Amino acid sequence: MFFLLWVVNFLFAEPMTIVEEDYKEIDVYVTPIKIINYSEATDEHINNLAPYYYTESYWRNAKVINERGTYDPIAMHTSVRTLNKNTVEYVYNNCNYLLNARKCANQNNHFLLETTVTIDDYELVVNMVLYNPDMTIASMGSKSVRSDVNWIKQQQTNVKIRGNEIVIEQLPEQKPLEWIVYSHLFDNYIRQAAHGLWLGVKIQ
After folding, report:
1. Lower CB density within 10 Å: C or N end of the chain?
2. Residue 193 is assigned to a structural domain of this protein
């Protein structure tokens, strides 16, 4: 009896429908680091692809707006595909990204991440900017490090012996010497800027 009921249900039951939600990956092209160095004493050796690697690590910190008007972790709805100078041509081969990355990102309707490092004798600043496809700013991250500046007092002292007396003569004080312990560019500064940038990303 139970077997007959099962057969009837199996033959006449409506087929199960699996609804597949729309899924669209978000593309981000990450440019090589641009370094502007005004200091002869500070080196600028850094992996040009560091922002790309940290984007791969931190994009999951971004958020997207949901139907309730609040924000969910981006990984609940979509994922981010990161591209660099070596991989972008396999996805978008219609534009020269090394020549004009902003124009190409706008043309192909995807996000763009630029990193600029500015160095002088007194400060090192890492700026990262994520642009929307229309080239408005979506988020920014930065890290700044100041050099350690020390001033060495310059004042000459003459000691003379006059008979049984010791005479100490202080000459006019000279301009102090500047001694700078220069900042250097470390990979960790790129990591901190990238982390802050992706924490601030909220995609509408």
Report:
1. N
2. yes
Task: Work out the number of other CB atoms within 10 angstroms of the CB of residue 177.
Answer: 10
CATH number reported for the structural domain that contains residue 67 in this entry? 3.40.50
Handedness of CA 64, 67, 71, 73 (dihedral sign): negative
Tell me the HSE value of 170 on the side-chain side, using a 13 A CA sphere.
Answer: 5
Instruction: Indicate if the pLDDT at residue 185 is higher than 70.
Output: yes
Pairing of strands 148-154, 80-83: unpaired
Residue 41: C-alpha distances to residues 44, 47, 120, 176, 184 (Å):
10, 19, 9, 20, 9
Identify whether 101 is part of a domain: yes
Model confidence over 60-110: pLDDT tens digits? Answer: 999 988 888 888 888 888 889 999 999 999 999 999 999 999 999 999 999
Q: Per residue, what are the HEC states of 120-141?
A: CCCEEEEEEEEECCCCCEEEEE
Question: With contact defined as beta carbons under 8 Å apart, do 204 and 111 qualify?
Answer: no
